[in-house]
Amino acid sequence: MPANEPVIVAEVVRSGFVEGHHRGSVVALAPDGQVDWAVGDVDSQVFARSSNKPLQAVGMLRCGLVLESRLLALTCASHSGEPFHVDGVRKILADAGLDEAALQTPPDYPLDDEARLTVIRSGGGPAPVTMNCSGKHAGMLATCVLNGWPIEDYREPDHPLQLAIRAAFESLTGEPSSAVGVDGCGAPLFAASLTSLARAFRALVTAPPETAEGRVASVFAEFPE
């Protein structure tokens, strides 16, 4: 296999027979942040999708966003649409003087099975507030209100909010993003290599707790749900 190609990281076995393979790339950092071990391609940039959320949240905090810890955890995460998640999204919006009509997340059912069945049984349907990225979007909207930025186009890549988030993302990863895409929620998605993403997450967990990076790491630990 050529160098820097994804390698087999898992085998699918049925009745003792290997019926398929999954290929991937893996990188592990040493305590000093240098690459300690890697297989596959860890230098080409990829879209890490929802794994970018904690880094995007750092950008919002650097823009002045203030949220209680449980709501910040919701902003950093892909939630499952359980009632306490939805209530949290609505509180973030309400505290910013908004309601769920401001959300530009695509309508969706909750990811949680019981929450989804509850919506269906009650005659409800897909909604922006139950989409798994609505916490992030609520945080984005609250950041816009705080800074006096327009909310109608908050998902546009050239919006002041998204430019600030991209700057934070690139400062955490330590490399310029070579591509900007559109995530499933409609917000901009920035590319980075696996190595730079590992270093970004290392920056979160090693940061002092009073910093934006440290707060994001601490709320995940405090409110994993």
Structural overview:
- It contains 8 helices and 7 strands, in the order E-E-E-E-E-H-H-H-H-H-H-E-E-H-H.
- With 225 residues, it is an alpha+beta fold.
- The strands form 3 sheets. The chain has a 3-stranded antiparallel beta sheet. Strands 1-2 form a two-stranded antiparallel ribbon. Strands 3-4 form a two-stranded antiparallel sheet.
- Helix 1 packs parallel to helix 5, helix 1 packs across helix 6 and helix 1 crosses helix 8.
- The longest helix has 14 residues.
- The chain is globular and about 50 Å long.
What is the total tally of β strands?
7
Q: Helical region count?
A: 8
What gap, in angstroms, lies between the N and C termini? 41 Å
- Order of strands, widest sheet: 5-7-6
